[in-house]
Amino acid sequence: MTRTNHPGARLRAAAAALVLTTVAALGAGAPASALPAGPGHGRLTVYVAPTGDDANPGTKQAPFRTIAAARDALEGRTSERHRGTVNIRGGEYVLDDTVALTGAENSWVTYTAYRGEDVTITGTHELPADGWQRLTDLGADELAQPQYAANTRLDTDALRDGVWVYDLGAQGIDPGTLYKNGFNWVQQPFAPELVVDGATQTLAEYPNGNACETKDTACHLWGTGGKWGAVGPQDLMNVDLLGRFGAQGHWERSGTTPRGQFEDKKQTLADPDDRGSWSSEKMRTMTPSVFTVGGRAAEGDRYQRWAPQAEPVVDDLGGRGLGEYADVPVQLDPRWIEDIDSTRYETEAWLSGYLGNNYANDMVRLLSWDEDRLYAKYPSMYIPQDEWTKVKVVNVLSEMDAVGEYYIDRYDGHDVLYYVPDGGTVEGKAVSLMSFDKSFFHLEGTTGVTLRGLGMTGSLVSGVQLLDTVGTLIDDVEISNVSMDAVRIGRTADTITAMPDYQT
Predict the structure, then answer these.
(1) Residue 125: pLDDT above 80?
(2) Residue 372 and residue 253 in one domain
(3) Does residue 469 share a domain with residue 415?
(4) Which residues cross the membrane (predicted)?
């Protein structure tokens, strides 16, 4: 149940220098003005080393520990005539926050590997074997601690045997965040990754497996399966599709789903002010799915473990459909369920897969259940259809029953990682968690900044972000294992559109 990291994950910005003389986002930014510098401004070369200390003066003999401390030491002291240099000694630097360089005060500085030494800047945390514990080795007093509240969701010996736990919170490691992503949605950071001996492990899921043929229903929860040419077991069936979303054939003009609120579907509206796309934030408040549970999801009341029991309180936020659907509310946004008993219920389960067609993969959060209904938070991009429904439940500790599966309990700051390692032990294995969802360097409004000779690896977004910068040089920098772009120049206004001539 592991997936080996694929070669396409590696991105490189190396060999030839990347010179960016003018970079603008959302309009041209003015160059950062030069700051006066001279003997009164002191030494403009500082050092960083893995063995340093941020209380040090930043000399070669007494270097800083972090790149951020070196940045702060030079802040406001550099200019085009008096450039600053941050010499970074060889070794690994684990980031928990981006190195943000902003405006004139952080301009005219070179961040460089010292004399060709190997420097790696990473967002990945190693999880050594001495930080792990077998779940079955923890005593009653330890398991009674709040951070281990979820352990009781592993409610059989078969589920508990072979499970190891790592207290991320105690080690100060960010557990990361699961964001809604999917086809046509504004891209958000990818899901955190647990990597063991070079292979990405599997977020706890039901059903297990990814080796099924198209019509094989074993690896997913299904609706009717009609559009796939399969006989679906009707695990999840949508409630009142016609009343809540309108006719499927009207999806392009009804405006009842996010895709219907893209500007390319609204150009015939009488008022030009109504023709623009809704923001992604507003789209996420649109009407979500409600399912009737059957098939395997209902066996042994399985679905009742995936979310707390509650009938959601739904707020009508005012949005309405288009044309003949102008009276249909399309922003029926359910409130979050508060005070979940995390000893019994999953707190952050998702459905991931296909809900409206066979090319638009999507994710919706499971909110709650009541009687035989399962309620979602967040809409799917298209009108959901029973014929297309083909999903997995993911991020569910109570379903962690296969080697290679893991789960992070983030609820209420618990921040504990649960994992089923191959061979029944983590000992002798290289285990790491990539949960860093920021860029390594974020430059905004700077002039004359150089990044040279650095290695950067392990981010769930882009490696380097440049906004309104002038004269940036990225030279002999290798960026690998990032989920988005190696170097992102500029940004959009997070506007979702299918129009070919849009500007952001």
Answers:
(1) yes
(2) yes
(3) no
(4) none
| Percent of the chain scoring above 90 in pLDDT | 87
How far apart CA 299 and CA 301 sit, in angstroms, is: 5
Residues 56 and 196 grouped into a single domain: no
Q: Are residues 151 and 286 in the same domain?
A: no
Predicted TM-score (pTM) of this structure: 0.89
Q: Last residue of some domain: 341, 370, 394?
A: 394
Residue 390 host element (H or E): strand 390-394
Q: Is 428 left (phi over 0), alpha (psi -120 to 50) or beta?
A: left
Query: How many CB atoms lie under 10 A from the CB of residue 36?
Result: 11
The token pair that represents 436 in the structure block: 């860093």
Which residues, 6 or more positions from 429, have their beta carbon under 8 angstroms from its beta carbon?
A: 129, 196, 197, 421
Contact 167, 433 (CB under 8 A): no
Cα 206 to Cα 380: distance, rounded to the nearest angstrom: 20
Beta strand 470-475 with 18-22 is antiparallel
| Count of residues making up the chain | 504
Average pLDDT of the residues of the chain:
91
Q: Please report whether residue 502 resides in a domain.
A: no
Q: Are residues 454 and 419 in the same domain?
A: no
Helices marked H in 126-195:
140-143, 157-160
* β-strands 202-203, 405-409 pairing: parallel
The pLDDT value given to residue 37: 41
* Same domain assignment for residues 351 and 260: yes
Claim to verify: residue 417 and residue 454 sit in the same structural domain: no
**Cβ atoms 378, 365 nearer than 8 A:** yes
Nearest CA to 330 among 321, 341, 339, 342? Answer: 321
31 in a domain, yes or no?
yes
pLDDT at 491: 75
Q: What is the DSSP letter of 57?
A: -
Section 240-260 average pLDDT: 95
Count of domains observed in the chain: 3
Same domain, 239 and 380: yes
Find the domain containing 470 and state its range: 3-123+436-489
Helix, strand, coil distribution of the chain in percent, nearest 5: 20, 30, 50
- Residue 24 structure tokens: 């603008």
Whether residue 212 lies inside any domain: the answer is: no
Confirm whether 211 is domain-assigned: no
